[in-house]
Design goal:
The complex is a heterodimer of chains A (661) and B (182). Chain A has 22 helices and 11 strands. Chain A is α+β, with helices and mostly antiparallel strands and 661 residues long. In chain A, the strands form 2 sheets. In chain A, strands 3, 4, 5, 6, 7 and 8 form a 6-stranded antiparallel β-sheet that branches. Chain A has a 4-stranded antiparallel β-sheet with strand order 2-11-10-9. Chain B has 182 residues and is an alpha+beta fold. Chain B folds into 2 domains: 33 residues; 138 residues, Nucleic acid-binding proteins (OB fold (Dihydrolipoamide Acetyltransferase, E2P), Beta Barrel), CATH 2.40.50. The chains are: A alpha+beta (661), B alpha+beta (182). Chains A and B meet through helix 14, strand 1, helix 15, strand 2 and strand 8 of A and helix 1, strand 1 and helix 3 of B.
């Protein structure tokens, strides 16, 4: 019933529906024909249903081991566990493009479902833009990377999946990351629709912001999950390699972060409108380029699993149409957007502008560092690479002012502000930061990690103070404070929590620069000392797994003679790929990770020795915990009442929606 | 605050931030860029010891030696591009995909007694060859991608590796593209 042919047919149907979705509502909106405009939601939902059918067909083929499908034969095997048969569907190029299209379809249907309070012309145009982008991707999927292509004769067993991908972290990383990437298609569609209409106002800012925040939350989680995956799977003790593929996700995150901040200014003050539209276009363009960078061979890197230059041409064309077209439309229409409200340099708007400038400078640095090597090899035929030293030297000095101003920003009033009263309210945070600086100088080495730890404390303390000041904690009876807290908009808490999350991440990053490690080759029974812990290799055994055989070590870790944990790092040999993977063993107490890796076996069989890599990673979990806290802050903002029902209607004349937050 | 003064402030802020970014990048470009070198380039003129480079090539089959100094494991292996070979010394765990006869990139610097790697990279894919290594092989005439997959290092480098070790010039390497027939 769910045959690959049905999937192929459904995908083609989705492509046709998407093309119709991309054209008809635009015509309807142009002619102000309500009936044609009302086709948009139906087409979006129809496209989603067709894509879901196609996706289910592929999942069904994977689960039932239908090796007559080329994609399944190349990436699956009978012996693969069921979970990875399902997640393996998007672990390869064809499937991941289908997943991308599916998420785009979900976005279109979500705008159709939740956008009922939008003006019908705007909604029709937004859905149309999403449909046009989807049509391009689905055509790409159908013509150059058909996931349903058959092979004949069908092999008895598949070639199996890269064992590195057989991991729960990576299984769920792509859908979350893709939702983040693709989610920025909705702000993009809003920007294009606004350019077509020639109108951006406070209501537009209010409509576009929830979509941007939602996509940002997913992207934040996706990046963190990817970083966490490389930390515990690759076994190098590192968490971020400044790899082009990682940078490709960081760049839209930086512009996306700028977008969710500048959209606030549009919403509250009707200022920065042209800039916000440009940011929305840029963020999605970078998301698209991110996919392109991964999927084509342009930026070869250790993370790209499915690269194929031939398909790159199609993607390049698609990118040129989407990015070039939207920028051309921007250049043509942006001058018609009227300038907004005035503000002084020292004001909330001013702080948000500074945030945008700094984030975009960071983005420019990361973009240059990522694109410079391929350009050098293309133009001058010189092969170079830029790595951690380059990015550390360029990003940290730009990030430091950003962290300093993060403390002030949320406390400044709109329009015009005095710095001194805000500084007075922040004195506790300043003292805490100074204390943190003093403590860090004793425990840490290097000026930048010490400074960053102090700034992390500053950011967290300022976020907490922002809330306590607003609820007048300790200045009035507790019940009064609680009452005030209940009255505060949730987005205020969202901001504070997200900013505190940034602080937690910085603290983790700063502490991780102090990580210690040791590589030894020892026989069983040896005890090693690292970071105050005694690590004893007590045993090494051979154990069979479902589709591999493993060499498992037993490491007893003691602290002051008391046993802390027994770790089992292992090395797996996968028979079907003639490949080995390293299974790291991590013990965390949330303040530090003990990280053990088992390497090769050497020596004679009578007296074998084993290579061990032992790491002590202080505050490592905080890096990802901080990202999770940021995302929670974003979700809290999303649940704000104003985001849901605040501005159902567009103001007729001068909008009177300026409220002091 | 008029529109003009606000614009002035904006321009000042933008110029300051982007200028700082550009200055930082230029400084980093002069000191933190890592160049890719091939073993024959190293043989011709060794990079200074304080300069980090990426050395790429194929691991010569049968060249991997492991030893221990105290409890520290040390791996030595030869990396070749078919014209010269460089011995790489690495303290640590070689990546899972490290194989003799397959491509590898070693990050480190050139010392008197050979190349000391701080990091050894092999791709997470058994069919992968780093782009730089593929380029180097194509340039040295060892591999033409039109004729199939890259040759196994064991099949073609034995002669030139020894020549390179004796300090002979690499000019006696075959000039014509050798179609891969492994």
């Amino acid at each position: 019933m769910l045959s690959p042919e049905l999937g192929h047919y459904a995908l083609a149907l989705a492509c046709i529906l998407a093309a119709a979705q991309g054209i008809l509502p635009l015509i309807g909106a142009h002619r102000r024909d309500r009936r044609v405009m009302m086709l948009a939601p139906g087409l979006a939902v129809g496209q989603l249903l067709a894509l879901l059918t196609a996706f289910l067909c592929l999942v069904y083929a994977a689960v039932t081991d239908d090796f007559s499908v080329q994609n399944i034969a190349a990436n699956s095997a009978v012996s693969k566990p069921l979970l990875y048969k399902i997640t393996g569907v998007w672990g390869n190029h064809e499937g991941s493009i289908l997943l991308w299209a599916l998420i785009l379809g979900i976005c279109g249907a979500a705008v159709a479902a939740f956008g009922r309070n939008l003006p019908s012309a705007l909604r029709a145009r937004v859905i149309a833009v999403l449909g046009a982008v989807a049509a391009g991707f689905e055509l790409f999927c159908l013509t150059t990377s058909d996931p349903f292509a058959r092979v004949w004769p069908a092999p008895m067993d598949g070639q199996g999946m890269n064992p590195l991908l057989q991991d729960p972290g990576l299984a769920f990383h792509p859908p979350i990351l893709y939702t983040g990437y693709v989610g920025f298609a909705v702000p993009f569609a809003f920007a294009i629709a606004a350019l077509i209409e020639g109108r951006v106002d406070a209501a537009w800012g209010r409509w576009v912001r929830p979509w941007a925040v939602a996509a940002w939350c997913f992207l934040t989680c996706g990046i963190a999950l990817g970083s966490w995956w490389s930390y515990y799977v690759l076994g190098w003790g590192g968490y971020w390699f400044w790899d082009p593929v990682e940078n490709a996700s960081l760049i839209p995150w930086l512009t996306g972060t700028a977008l969710i901040h500048s959209a606030i200014v549009v919403e509250k003050r009707e200022s920065l409108k042209i800039w916000t539209v440009l940011l929305a276009i840029a963020t999605f363009s970078f998301s698209l380029s991110g996919t392109f960078l991964v999927r084509s061979g342009i930026l070869n890197s250790v993370h790209a699993f499915a690269n194929d230059p031939a398909r790159g041409i199609f993607i390049l064309g698609l990118l040129a149409v989407v990015i070039g077209g939207s920028l051309a439309l921007f250049a043509y229409r942006a001058p018609t957007l009227t300038a907004g409200g005035l503000f002084a340099p020292i004001s909330r708007e001013g702080a948000l502008v500074l945030n945008n400038i700094l984030l975009c400078s960071l983005c420019a640095v990361v973009l240059t560092g990522t694109m410079y090597p391929p350009f050098m090899s293309l133009l001058f035929d010189r092969t170079i690479s830029v790595g951690k030293p380059f990015f550390d030297a360029t990003t940290i000095p730009l990030a430091i002012p950003l962290f300093i101003f993060m403390g002030f920003g949320p406390m400044l009033p709109w329009k015009r502000a005095q710095l001194w009263p805000v500084l007075q309210r922040l004195w506790i945070a300043a003292i805490l930061a100074a204390v943190a600086f003093a403590v860090a100088t004793f425990g840490m080495s290097g000026i930048l990690p010490i400074l960053c730890s102090a700034l992390a404390v500053w950011v967290i303390a300022a976020s907490v103070l922002d809330i306590t000041e607003r609820v007048r904690l300790f200045r009035m009876p507790l019940s009064g404070s609680l009452q005030r807290a209940r009255m505060l908009p949730r987005s205020i808490f969202g901001t504070a929590i997200a900013h505190a999350g940034v602080g937690v991440t910085i603290l983790g990053l700063a502490a991780m620069s102090q990580a210690q490690h040791k590589i030894v080759e020892v026989p069983v029974g040896t005890t090693e000392h690292l970071a105050g812990y005694d690590w004893t290799l007590t045993n090494v055994t051979q154990e069979p797994g479902p589709n591999y055989s493993a060499m498992v070590a037993t490491l007893e870790v003691r602290h002051n003679g008391k046993i802390v944990t027994i770790m089992h790092p292992s090395k797996r040999s996968f028979n079907s790929q003639n490949q080995t993977t390293t299974e790291v063993s991590i013990h965390t107490n949330l303040l530090a990770d003990l990280y053990g890796v088992l390497g090769d076996k050497h020596g004679t069989d009578a007296a074998p020795t084993y290579v061990l890599r032992l790491h002590y990673n202080p505050l490592a979990p905080w890096m990802w915990l901080g990202a999770l806290i940021m995302a929670i802050g974003g979700v809290l903002s999303l649940s704000d009442r104003r985001m849901r029902v605040g501005a159902p209607r567009r103001a007729k004349s001068s909008p009177n929606t300026v409220t002091a937050a | 605050m008029t529109r003009k003064t606000r614009r002035l402030w904006l321009v000042i802020a933008c110029v300051a931030c982007l200028g700082a970014a550009a200055a930082l990048m230029l400084k980093a470009f002069s000191s933190d860029i890592v160049f890719f070198v091939t073993p024959s380039q190293v043989a011709a003129s060794a990079p200074p010891a304080d300069r980090t480079v990426r050395l790429g090539g194929m691991v010569v089959a049968g060249s991997v030696k492991r030893e221990k100094r105290g409890e520290t494991p040390i791996a030595r292996f030869d990396v070749t591009d078919g014209q010269a070979a460089v011995t790489v010394r690495y303290e640590g765990i070689l990546p899972d995909l490290f194989r003799e006869g397959q491509s590898v990139v070693a990050v480190g610097s050139m010392h008197k007694d050979g190349f000391v790697a701080s990091e050894v990279l092999a791709k997470h894919d058994e069919t992968y060859m780093p782009k730089e290594v593929a380029e180097a092989l194509k340039k040295s005439g060892k591999w033409d991608p039109r004729f199939g997959p890259p040759p196994s290092a064991a099949s073609w480098n034995s002669m030139t590796v020894q020549d390179a070790k004796k300090g002979l010039p690499a000019s006696n390497a075959p000039a014509a593209p050798a179609p891969a027939g492994n």
